[in-house]
Amino acid sequence: MAQLTLENISKHYGEHAVVDDISLAIEKGQFVALLGPSGCGKTTTLRMIAGFEQLDQGRIVLNDRLLASPQQHIAPEQRNMSMVFQSYALWPHKTVLDNAGYALALRGLRGQPYRDQVFAALEAVNLGHLADRFPQALSGGQRQRVALARCLVSHPDVVLLDEPLANLDVHLRAAMETTFRDFHARTGATFIYVTHDQAEAMAMADRIAVMNHGRLEQWDTPENLYRRPASRWVATFIGKGAVLDVPNHVHGKNLRSDDILNLLSNSGAMHRGAMLVRPEHVSVVDEGIDVTVQHRVYKGERYQYMANLADGQSVTFYHPRLLEHGQAVQVQIEHAWGLDL
Ligand SMILES: Nc1ncnc2c1ncn2[C@@H]1O[C@H](COP(=O)(O)OP(=O)(O)OP(=O)(O)O)[C@@H](O)[C@H]1O
Hints:
Elements: E1 4-13, E2 16-26, E3 31-35, H1 42-50, E4 57-62, E5 65-68, E6 81-84, H2 96-100, H3 102-106, H4 111-124, H5 140-152, E7 158-162, H6 170-187, E8 190-195, H7 198-204, E9 207-212, E10 215-220, H8 222-227, H9 232-237, E11 242-246, E12 254-256, H10 257-265, E13 273-277, E14 282-285, E15 289-298, E16 303-309, E17 314-319, E18 328-333, E19 335-340
Parallel strand pairs: 3-8, 3-9, 6-7, 7-8
Antiparallel strand pairs: 1-2, 1-4, 4-5, 9-10, 11-13, 12-19, 13-19, 14-18, 15-16, 15-18, 16-17
Adenosine-5'-triphosphate (ATP) is lined by residues 13, 18, 36, 38-44, 196.
């Protein structure tokens, strides 16, 4: 049974629906990402779950308790949720310990029980040794870990994270992805993580809600989003690859090399469908489909190429050896996924 359900929730600003009829059923302990381009309504969805925004339509239910509907609005502090922001929002004049323990101090916890509980949270993010420092003397990643510890002390049912890595450099982001996953595993809490970075969502989440213009495009596992995107939009938003127009209806089909060869040999005809070709499914062979190399990017262990088919459509692929611009080669496409036109 789902722990947290969003049932057809919508939010309008004026005439404009920024969140448009979103439904999700989230299991207890799941790590969920809300993923989509800037302005697609991710943060507004998160803020509705947190209780910072009212709903215009639909319901939000946590553990059978109605949290929000157009008629009902439980206050944020009564939802047993905790939110981690991009900006950390740490008190500069409080130590790491007292920043993390703020919610417990507010509840009147003092002395050793207070220190023990806050230390447990700090240890969970490997910050026990910095308990007496002030935030100015911490790196960005350490500050973000204080913010995580702070949300952990109150044992929330649901942790809401709004682009928490956006201010960190690329190396630190990768390290923090591991921190978040460990933190999630330790707490057993449900995580809802907003990001516009698909690699980040794929690396951490069990399930991803892909949003576009306020609507839910697909609600699925990272593997399914990559292998079986429900729409052309998701296919191009998630991962690398080429979408090729084809003459037949192929939506939802797993296409093998013979099917692909047939589709491409008739590609001058009218287009009724499309297929997604990932670069790892394209290989250079002695005898196959004619392509002409257009573009090359050196990737260290291999090159990434873009090449044109005879009909002008292009595919991307990887190859260990150097190919020149304009060079004619033959490729085999082992696998493709059928999409609507
Ligand atoms: N208070 C508001 N009044 C009017 N429009 C708003 C308000 N808050 C958000 N919007 C608009 O709603 C849309 C969705 O905003 P939201 O912040 O949810 O998007 P997002 O997907 O989180 O984007 P980003 O990744 O850029 O934060 C945007 O077009 C935004 O300009």
